[in-house]
Design goal:
The complex is a heterodimer of chains A (about 475) and B (about 220). In chain A, the strands form 8 sheets. In chain A, strands 3-2-1-30 form a 4-stranded antiparallel sheet, with no helix packed on it. A 4-stranded antiparallel sheet of chain A has the order 4-5-6-7. Helices cover about 5% and strands about 40% of the residues of chain A. Chain A contains 5 helices and 30 strands. Chain A is mainly β and about 475 residues long. The two termini of chain A are about 30 Å apart. Chain B has one domain. Chain B starts with a helix and ends with a helix. In chain B, helix 3 packs across helix 5 and helix 6 crosses helix 7. Chain B is built from 9 helices and no strands. The chains are: A mainly beta (about 475), B mainly alpha (about 220). Chains A and B meet through loops of A and helix 2 and helix 8 of B.
Chain lengths: ~475, ~220
């Protein structure tokens, strides 16, 4: 318990942008076949350091087959909520769930170079206390740590709907299910919120049988993956509105609300439109009558390709779909980064006008049937995937693996884990940095990145930027 | 300085103390003005917080004022009240967990939030020994009144104490909120935010102990 708030809690997004820059990144390392233990890599981000761009410490867990994916902090800027009055938590622990094992690790990263496991929550405890499985997205909020789960109960996670559970942010005891009235929500993926305006938005991927052993082509072509976003009364824990984006908009994944809590809009990335293979971004907003609306504001076209260059899954389409698998919004709500994992491109959109995004920059690296090398000449397996932006918005980091079994379907000949970084130009634009290239240990792939002191997809702010 | 003046001073002092404590709500006033982009939202939020705090004070003081017409039990009541206040302080000292139900209150329900925050932290209890001290001096100075008159006098005193305390709290919290909103900026919000949890719990123990002492050895 501190006497002053943690200096990495920022009242507003603007103050977070002015804070000192990040020194370390924490990046997921996962063993795709469960032959090795998963872990968290600590990457040195200090440009003047001798070990810049190297993994300087690893936390390897004792179990195998966890399959790490997303993770998050025990506490963030949301602790400065004027409603809390007790802003004295520490941003100290990473909550790291295994989406295959449903085991959760709490890792103490107070000293990044000595990061270690603080607590392990076994899957049985999660099942018993929540009825959910396959924990995924982590956010710290008013009632503690919120964790979205992709599966319900039972061996294949289809016994009952998936949802969010709440964990105590100091003892890491699981408290129980979040939802009091989930309405039509029956699948889950991402969620985020606006704390002062008291709303939450959640999205849908698919149920565990639809992703654990790879993408199920029949389900995708019959539009059986998630295609709705749900709006919630955050504190009443009630679904107040569901917007169906149209059943051809398969896999509505990342939810990125504007960081400035004065604003009532955000974005959602859709992996693929089954009518034309486009990837898309929807802008959602609250209208003057208080109703939520959503409109497609970005489309990214597929690239025609000879069948012999394509993996079996795509040969029939004779095209590379963009596969929009991750998006991230800079803290000034100006640039939206869109990972096109299929094309092998990272797009930067100027979303100053959220209804009319403009492409401002683009980087090519990796990609199906293209495999563009990194500017330093080294290979980049798969395509740009999990993206994280520095607080000041000047550096964009990303890794390359989507999900073990899906990597193997879309990129059957690739293997490896890489993390790269691009510099953002003064007036937009994106350039890969030649000097930053992290190659992960053999047999391990990489996924989500968290930056020391918070980043653009962890912190929820309670005061507007002024 | 008479002991009565000292006690009224304590009412004001505790108000200033509660007002400066971010746990009693001044950051909400800053947030309201920023979210609405309207400086007038700041005094409006403070007023709602004041209503909640005042009601919480009355809710604690009133039962004691109604009990206090049992003049022959005066010492016992004051000792009992002191023990309750000390117990609340010890409880808050041992249980340093943030009351979770406050997180369930809608951010716009400022008066309700303020009431619940004051109740959860024993803000009203901190006033009880001071209030009972004022009530106890009253009869000595005015001579022994009929129970009826004494009781209504005590009720009036309860309202006056709660009002004076809440006014002091609102002014103190308002000054901090206004200084941050108008001059210093949000950067100072986290800098001025001090962890008063232990000090707060110790204050309750101190005030409770004073209540017991003054009941037994006061005058």
């Amino acid at each position: 318990m501190n006497l002053r708030p943690d200096p990495t809690f920022y009242p507003s997004p603007k103050l977070a942008m002015q804070a000192p820059v990040e020194n370390y990144a924490f990046t997921v390392m996962l063993s795709p076949d469960g032959s090795q233990s998963d872990g968290i890599a600590v990457v040195d981000l200090k440009p003047d350091s001798d070990t810049y761009g190297q993994i300087v410490h690893q936390v390897i867990v004792p179990n195998k087959g966890d399959e790490f994916h997303h993770f998050g902090w025990n506490a963030c800027s949301s602790a400065l909520s004027p409603l809390s009055g007790h802003a004295f938590l520490e941003r100290r622990y990473l909550i790291v769930p295994g989406i295959r094992s449903s085991r959760i690790y709490v890792i103490d990263v107070k000293d990044p170079l000595k990061a270690h496991i603080h607590k392990t929550i076994e899957p049985e405890e999660l099942f018993a206390k929540t009825g959910y499985s396959r924990p995924h997205t982590i956010h710290c909020g008013p009632e503690g740590i919120y964790v979205s789960c992709l599966g319900g109960g039972g061996a294949d996670g289809t016994d009952g709907p998936p949802g969010i559970f709440i964990m105590d942010c100091e003892t890491f005891e699981i408290i129980g299910q979040y939802e009091m009235d989930r309405g039509p929500q029956d699948k889950h993926y991402d969620f985020w919120w606006n704390l002062p305006q008291d709303y939450m938005v959640s999205s849908e991927w698919g149920l565990p049988p639809q992703f654990e052993n790879g993408v199920v082509a029949e389900d995708l072509l019959s539009n059986k993956y998630g295609h709705s976003i749900h709006f919630w009364d955050l504190r009443a824990r009630k679904n107040i509105q569901t917007i169906d984006l149209g059943d051809n908009h398969q896999m509505a994944l990342e939810i990125r609300p504007a960081h400035d809590p004065k604003k009532s809009y955000g974005f959602c990335g859709v992996v693929v439109d089954t009518t034309n293979l486009q990837g898309s971004i929807f802008t959602w907003w609250r209208d003057d009558d208080g109703k939520w609306q959503a409109k497609k504001t970005i489309t990214i076209d597929p690239r025609p390709e000879k069948p012999e260059n394509l993996p079996p899954l795509l040969q029939g389409f004779e095209a590379v779909p963009p596969l929009v698998t991750d998006i991230d919004l800079s803290l000034d709500d100006k640039y939206l980064y869109v990972a096109c994992w299929g094309l092998g491109e990272m797009h930067q959109y100027d979303v100053s006008d959220p209804m009319n995004p403009v492409l401002a920059g683009k980087v090519e690296v990796g990609g199906i049937a293209r495999g563009t090398a990194h500017p330093n000449g080294k290979p980049f397996a798969y395509g740009p995937q999990m993206v994280e932006i520095s607080r000041d918005g000047k550096r964009v980091y990303w890794t390359n693996s989507l999900y073990s079994t899906w990597d193997d379907q879309f990129y059957p000949d690739d293997e490896g884990g890489q993390m790269v970084m691009a510099d953002v130009g003064e007036n937009g634009g994106l350039t890969l940095n030649k000097d930053f290239y992290v190659d992960f240990p053999a047999g391990l792939r990489s996924h989500q990145i968290r930056l020391e002191g918070g980043d653009c997809s962890t912190d929820s702010f309670c005061y507007p930027s002024v | 300085m008479t002991s009565l003046t000292a006690l009224w001073g304590a009412v004001i002092f505790s108000g200033v103390y509660h007002g400066l404590n971010p746990g009693m709500g001044w950051p909400l006033a800053v947030s309201a003005a920023l979210m609405e982009q309207n400086p007038r939202a700041l005094p409006r939020a403070l007023a709602m917080l004041a209503v909640g705090h005042f009601v919480a004070m009355i809710a604690i003081l009133l039962p004691f004022s109604l009990m206090f017409f049992l003049v022959e039990w005066e010492t016992e009541i004051r000792v009992g009240a002191g023990i309750i206040v000390v117990a609340m302080g010890v409880y808050l000292l041992l249980n340093r967990r943030h009351p979770k139900f406050l997180a369930r209150v809608h951010p716009a329900r400022l008066a309700l939030w303020s009431f619940l925050a004051a109740m959860a932290h024993g803000a009203g209890l901190m006033l009880v020994p001071i209030y009972l001290g004022i009530c106890a001096i009253g009869p000595d100075e005015t001579g022994h009144l009929a129970a009826q008159a004494l009781m209504s006098g005590n009720v009036v005193t309860a309202f006056t104490v709660a009002a004076a305390h809440t006014l002091a709290m609102t002014v103190a919290g308002g000054v901090v909120a206004a200084v941050i909103y108008v001059w210093l900026g949000l950067k100072f919000l986290s800098r001025t935010w001090l962890n008063l949890d232990v000090v707060w719990a110790l204050s309750l123990i101190l005030v409770g102990a004073f209540g017991i002492w003054s009941a037994l050895y006061g005058h």
